[in-house]
Specification:
With 289 residues, this protein is α/β, with parallel strands linked by helices. It has 13 helices and six strands. InterPro entries: CDIN1.
């Protein structure tokens, strides 16, 4: 994606102050040339950056949200109280819900209840565990209206990542490439492993590929730098040059034309050149000597 197109999408997201669900619907209408997966990935990455600035787990904020919630309940406000608080303070509903849940358990005089509330994520995933039915419904609504931090969203993201790993493996098999997956590499003692380690390297656009990494997201500069630091450079050190696939596209500015460590694509390449078998026969003969 060209930088000017990306900036248009980012500008729209940054100027929006509603729920991310509503923002996503508007993005699909305003930028129909891009897939829903691409737009959602850009929205998700940008919104998480915003939350790092807007959301802080301070006691003051926890008390403030709790007081506002209690006041609304006492005044008989309609359901969706936490969602409205989240909209007002421009913080994800599930993040507000976590703080309110923490404060809710803090007010309990029973030691057992306090210990149970130590991990509020349990109650976010299963609101039926909450004895306060009104609070349970409020938190449940947050999980429905928050498409970035909801437990359901996390499950969907993990499932999507697995789906594209399976797609990668199918493409590798379809092109007749011998490979080892992450599970096999971990059994061999590797701590950091790509999705596919090719047994026999191939060439793509004149670049030798030893491994392939699948990412079911949009590759912006921040995400790419983070993955490069924590994953790609480790793969390069262990296995040599490789290929990174951002299935939902990537920003053109992350490409370094002279980079010899890995290349970036938004799909599985079709112009694969297999290494001549006689190269390996010669190599094996030399090793035998």
């Amino acid at each position: 994606m060209e930088i000017h197109e990306y900036n248009k999408i980012i500008s729209f997201v940054r100027n929006d102050r509603g729920l991310t669900q509503a923002c996503m619907k508007q993005l699909v209408i305003k930028f129909p040339q891009y897939s829903c997966d691409t737009l959602y990935s850009i929205l998700s990455l940008e919104y998480q950056k915003r939350m790092k600035c807007n959301y802080t787990k301070t006691q003051a904020n926890k008390n403030k949200y709790w007081v506002l919630y209690q006041k609304a309940v006492q005044e008989g406000d309609s359901p969706g109280i936490i969602i409205r608080i989240a909209e007002h303070f421009d913080v994800a509903p599930c993040l507000i819900a976590k703080l309110i849940l923490t404060r809710h358990f803090d007010t309990s005089e029973e030691l057992e209840t306090k210990e149970q509330g130590a991990n509020v994520n349990i109650y976010l995933r299963n609101t039926s565990l909450l004895s306060d039915m009104d609070l349970a419904y409020e938190v449940f609504l947050c999980t429905l209206y928050d498409n970035i931090y909801s437990p359901l969203t996390e499950v969907m993201k993990a499932s999507l990542g697995q789906q594209y790993e399976v797609k990668l493996h199918k493409e590798v098999v379809k092109h007749g490439l011998a490979f080892r997956d992450e599970e096999h590499l971990r059994r061999c003692g590797y701590d950091k492993t790509p999705d596919c380690k090719l047994e026999v390297p191939v060439a793509v656009d004149g670049f030798i590929i030893n491994w392939i990494e699948s990412k079911a997201l949009f590759g912006d500069e921040d995400a790419h730098k983070e993955y490069m630091k924590n994953q790609y450079l480790s793969y390069w050190n262990r296995f040599g040059p490789g290929l990174v696939i951002y299935w939902f596209g990537y920003l053109q500015t992350i490409i370094e034309p002279n980079d010899k460590r890995f290349i970036v694509r938004d799909g599985f390449p079709e112009n694969i050149i297999h290494m001549p078998s006689d190269i390996f026969n010669i190599s094996n003969k030399n090793q035998a000597k």
